[in-house]
Amino acid sequence: MASRKEGSGAAGGGFGGAKGKGKAAAAGDSAVKQVQIDGLVVLKIIKHYQEEGQGNEVVQGVLLGLVVDDRLEITNCFPFPQHTEDDADFDEVQYQMEMMRSLRHVNIDHLHVGWYQSTYYGSFVTRALLDSQFSYQHAIEESVVLIYDPIKTAQGSLSLKAYRLTPKLMEVCKEKDFSPEALKKANIAYENMFEEVPIVIKNSYLINVMLWELEKKSAVADRHELLSLASSNHLGKSLQLLMDRVDEMSQDIVKYNTYLRNVSKQQQQKHQYQQRRQQENIQRQSRGEPPLPEEDINKLFKPPQPPPRMESLLIAGQINTYCQNIKEFNAQNLGKLFMAQALQDYNN
Amino acid sequence: MTDACSAQPITVRTEGPICLSCKMAATAPGAAPPAAAPPQSPTATPTAPAGSAPPAAAPTPPAAPAPPPAAPLSAALSGPFPGGRVVRLHPVVLASIVDSFERRNEGAARVIGTLLGTVDKHSVEVTNCFSVPHNESEDEVAVDMEFAKNMYELHKKVSPSEIILGWYATGHDITEHSVLIHEYYSREAHNPIHLTVDTSLQNSRMSIKAYVSAPMGVPGKTMGVMFTPLTVKYVYYDTERIGVDLIMKTCFSPNRVIGLSSDLQQVGSASARIQDTLTMVLQYAEDVLSGKVAADNTVGRFLMDLINQVPKISPEDFETMLNSNINDLLMVTYLANLTQSQIALNEKLLSL
Predict the structure, then answer these.
(1) Cα A12 to the center of its chain, rounded Å
(2) B2-25+72-238: which CATH number, 3.40.50.150, 3.40.50.720, 3.40.140.10, 3.40.50.450?
(3) Which of B158, B245, B259 has the CB atom closest to A52's CB atom?
(4) Closest approach of chain A CAs to the CA of B46, in angstroms?
(5) Mind listing the pLDDT tens digit for each residue in B107-132?
(6) Does the structure show a pLDDT above 70 at B14?
């Protein structure tokens, strides 16, 4: 029986198999340096997407596990049903509570440590994800979001990444102030919005035995997608998504520029008004009339609203992710093409 | 008699009024078809708890030989059980079972749970499972069916197409309690499958077997239950295959931990694998040529197919294709870098 240390946070009562000392979650600085995932979780996530996630919808689920020192161990997970309009009375919280209670009965770790989501060609940097991850991280210091890319996985290698919000971004989200000044003060660039946490996969001995059994009994894989030279389809789609984002970005930039122009125009107008006022007052004084009262300038010229910068930050982050993915994909394909060339030369 | 016993893989395990012996099975052939006609019904199996005094208790042999009645029974079975007695199993189910075994309560010798999956015209596919708390002692077995129903409802919300297909148990034998539990499950599912995963590693193997139950015995008198084995096939989705290959690597690392490798490393390892398999094939060809191994025509035909699959391209065509592909990739990389520097610039300008 595996004996584990339990992380605190949720119910810390010992029960059944999992014995150990409870560990208090450290206050601000217990960053997670490594995420350790059980093989079972990987298989479950793959299965969930394969069965329920065809098409452009994302599939989501909850990760369960515990925290050991600065490592987050994910030992189990369960999927979330898709959002459908006709089940408006479906209570997500209740589903989650029921599931966790039932899992507790069979000694599965019932502590919530994060969530997972599938992604389409790497597009996951959205406001929704940011909000969800923020609420998770606010409640549970060490939570992560696992992003599973099924299309990249189908090309030959498992693509699973764990992300957390950087502490700086957490601060900004707490304030809920996304104006340009606030962001400038916090000094956030799109690069330090998310931090990626390295993942390792761990299996118990018994699972290893089972894997050996499987290896003996099942047929050898006959499709080696990893070495396929065809790349144009994937590249085409990625570039399409990238172009869409760049368009959005340029629109956003235009909006920001108009705002800046408006601000400067307003400054000029204020200045002109003040000057005119002064001149008039001088004239009146010279004629012996009482000066006009000073009016509150700010009431006359309402400053334009600064556009929230969060959107553009997210778009920049997304564009960055796309570019990263494209570059990795290209590097792989170049390697494969050069290999093919070497083989061809050898044959000739 | 023992040779016949070991040759036939049918496992029977009951006790009490449901006694079976070679003789009884041998005399049943005529009676078997009408007995098997009603599909397994709870009335046909008065499985009494082990405490009742058996009228004609014979010591239960762990494995009884498979007599001719197997044939008419299997005819009755293949009706409601499509796919020719083959169960298709996904690896995630096995991983779940092993994991729940590792987390069992103190003192529990084995764990049981429900199998979920789909049935279609051609096959029965088990894709999911969850464990169910149960208590087992010498005299009785109690399964928390309420829990099982609740979990099934929750699972149905996520995957509405999965139905209860049967149940699993860890351990290497079928016990009397299994018969009882099987009866519980036959109320939930039609012709439930029973899967055993041998976590006690008998014979240094983790044997994974599947069974279906069939009633047997003399009609009118005490009836018994026989578990007939099914073939287990492992199926994978493509992505599952890739996932399993990755997870398998932990078998080789000393502390069972692996990280995810970078892209070029993966290409490198995939090509190394192909290189190994090619070496094996070449070795085989050499052995055949030098006479060490007898030539096999099927393998020869596969080799022919393999060689013919390499496309014949003239060097110029290949050059053009290669160059255009490389140009495409380089251009895209350049564009990606350009975009990245653009947004970096944008950030800098904003913070001025």
Answers:
(1) 29
(2) 3.40.140.10
(3) B158
(4) 30
(5) 788 888 999 998 887 778 899 999 88
(6) no
